[in-house]
């Protein structure tokens, strides 16, 4: 007759699964840090390239080589942390998305040498160069979102949402730096450039509002103090939004101030990544040091023929149930029962606090899919597709995600168009 299954084995297995899950989050956090650094240096190369192109090769010539070297170093660091491919026989179906995202990012990064040659020879417009950098950076950010699409508890999930929204705000800020750099360098702002400046500022504010709703108060305070010191930056922002070219050295002042702001955003971004890691490490330490590791507890919890789990109940016949409303022996109260209660509470908290995360990610995916449709079937750039979605939403007094979803609902119109 086979032995009956024992609860202790399953709870121990559950604890090992929890440890494995937290290890995965920690590894993801390390990779996100590398991706964040790559985005940061790509953003700077994008801005420097715009100044070089729009100054007709008069400014930032030496800077381009430094920026390319920084990107190459960051790529090398990132590649060493990418997950290794297992043998084909060991590939897991669930890994499809992350492998696809890695492949898409690597393919985008492979276009950098040719893009740099075109920039160096000034055979590409600053608009086209910026669009290319935007597309590359977006592929890196897409991998960030995929890597972080993990089973996280409430606190970690909130920290991840704060990180996502802040990283997206920083990318809008990077696009703003590059766009205004081009205008100040060429001493000309087109109507579309000024409109895009306004939209990029609004998009940053929207992301920062979401960030403030999820981030730790101390991190919000760090960012708020930085934003209070940007009066000159705001003045130059207004010049760009109104199309005023400024003085000859305005482009250098703007780029320096915008870069200081982005460097500060990188510091805050690093703090957000560290917050995620810290929360995971705390959880990991709690699980690893739980009472399930107590030899006195495990002496009877680990199942043996000589001392089954039921022996705990017999050994505790003298226990006063009035002292403990669970009615269970103190050994179980301190270990297995606590784990049961903790897991139940964590799942309930997860359902509540991840609702916002799921909505945020689903809205983003819906908007990205709608933009892809417009780009594929209407021949629009990513910026033009986003502008059209926002304009349509404002005209109809609806949210962008509502317009995007409506577009996806009638997507057969696009696919059937000759």
UniProtKB/TrEMBL annotation:
Residues 33-283 form the NIT domain. This is Transcription antitermination regulator. SMART domains: ANTAR (SM01012). GO terms for molecular function: RNA binding. It comes from Mangrovibacter phragmitis. Residues 347-408 form the ANTAR domain.
């Amino acid at each position: 007759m086979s032995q009956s299954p024992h609860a202790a084995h399953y709870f121990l297995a559950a604890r090992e699964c929890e440890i494995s899950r937290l290890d995965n989050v920690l590894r993801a956090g390390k990779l996100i840090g590398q991706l964040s650094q790559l985005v940061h240096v790509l953003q700077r190369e994008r801005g420097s390239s715009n100044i070089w192109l729009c100054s007709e090769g008069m400014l930032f010539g030496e800077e381009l080589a430094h920026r390319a070297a920084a990107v190459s170093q960051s790529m090398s660091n990132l590649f060493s942390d990418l997950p290794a491919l297992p043998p084909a026989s060991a590939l897991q179906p669930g890994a499809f998305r992350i492998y696809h995202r890695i492949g898409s990012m690597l393919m985008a990064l492979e276009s950098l040498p040719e893009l740099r040659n075109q920039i160096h020879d000034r055979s590409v417009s600053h608009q086209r160069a910026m669009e290319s950098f935007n597309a590359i950076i977006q592929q890196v950010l897409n991998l960030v979102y995929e890597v972080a699409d993990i089973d996280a508890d409430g606190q970690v999930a909130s920290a991840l949402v704060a990180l996502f929204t802040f990283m997206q705000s920083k990318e809008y800020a990077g696009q703003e730096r590059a766009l205004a750099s081009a205008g100040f360098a060429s001493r000309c702002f087109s109507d579309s450039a000024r409109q895009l400046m306004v939209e990029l500022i609004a998009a940053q504010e929207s992301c920062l509002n979401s960030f403030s709703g999820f981030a730790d108060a101390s991190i919000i305070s760090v960012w708020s103090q930085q934003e209070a010191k940007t009066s000159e930056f705001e003045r130059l922002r207004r010049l760009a939004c109104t199309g005023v070219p400024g003085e000859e050295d305005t482009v250098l002042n703007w780029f320096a101030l915008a870069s200081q702001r982005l460097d500060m955003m990188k510091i805050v971004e690093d703090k957000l990544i560290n917050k995620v890691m810290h929360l995971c490490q705390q959880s990991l330490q709690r699980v690893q040091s739980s009472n399930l590791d107590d030899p006195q507890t495990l002496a009877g919890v680990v199942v043996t023929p000589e001392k089954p789990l039921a022996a705990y109940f017999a050994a505790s016949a003298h226990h006063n149930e009035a002292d403990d409303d669970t009615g269970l022996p103190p050994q179980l109260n301190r270990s297995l029962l606590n784990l049961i209660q903790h897991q139940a509470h964590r799942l309930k908290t997860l359902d509540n606090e991840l609702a916002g995360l799921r909505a945020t990610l689903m809205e983003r995916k819906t908007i990205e899919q709608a933009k892809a449709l417009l780009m594929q079937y209407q021949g629009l750039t990513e910026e033009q597709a986003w502008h059209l979605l926002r304009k349509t939403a404002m005209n109809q007094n609806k949210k962008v995600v509502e317009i995007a979803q409506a577009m996806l609902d009638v997507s057969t119109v696009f696919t059937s168009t000759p």
